[in-house]
Design a protein that fits this description.
By secondary structure, the chain is mostly helical. It has five helices and two strands, in the order ααααββα. The chain has one domain (43-189): Four Helix Bundle (Hemerythrin (Met), subunit A), CATH 1.20.120.
Length: 193
């Protein structure tokens, strides 16, 4: 029960963070919105997930692209996964969870290896985010209570929303750490242009 509460707490904080990141900048001259002037959002959970996808896709793909090809075998410690392994994990996670959420088949791919060339892994990562965009386009909140087999665990489809959103944050955080350990500033830390 404690794990569930902690997970829900992190999920709520993540969703709040995602909403804050996607909100337009406020202006001192703009009048404050009143409850009557803001229409309710239809399908708020799936809408937030799709909105979050945009920034996570941009930053994660930029991080993969920023890592030099000869550093895809880099591991911070011998017990940690290589950067290439992280990229393969991102691809598999995107394809698998987005397919389960949208109740569509996952794309058929040749087996990817962490030792595959950077361009092949980057292309597959782009395709996995594109698949998520397409798959999640028709997701609506009405099916979030349906029971889904996620492989290691079964639960409501909403669980997959938290897995996916949390995974995107975790995956980018790991990629950013690998970049910093190689003297590369992660995309989200780059100065604004």
């Amino acid at each position: 029960m404690e794990k569930i509460l902690v997970t829900l707490g992190f999920a709520c904080a993540f969703v709040g963070s995602a909403l804050a990141q996607t909100a337009p900048p406020s202006s001192a001259a703009a009048p404050a919105a009143t409850p009557q002037s803001v229409a309710p959002v239809k399908n708020p959970v799936s809408t937030v997930l799709r909105t979050t996808l945009t920034s996570r896709q941009k930053n994660t793909l930029a991080a993969i692209d920023a890592m030099p090809a000869d550093k895809f075998s880099y591991k911070p410690t011998p017990d940690q996964m290589s950067f290439g392994h992280l990229v393969v994990h991102i691809i598999e996670s995107n394809n698998g969870i987005c397919a389960k959420l949208a109740d569509v088949p996952a794309p058929k791919l040749d087996e990817l290896k962490e030792t595959d060339p950077k361009d092949k892994l980057l292309s597959a990562a782009r395709a996995s985010f594109d698949f998520c965009s397409t798959a999640l386009a028709s997701l609506d909140d009405s099916k979030l209570g349906d029971n889904v087999d996620f492989g290691r665990v079964q639960g409501p489809r909403a669980m997959g929303v938290f897995f996916l959103a949390g995974g995107w944050a975790d995956h980018y955080g790991a990629a950013a750490m690998y970049l910093r350990l190689n003297g590369i500033l992660p995309p989200s830390a780059q100065p604004k242009k």
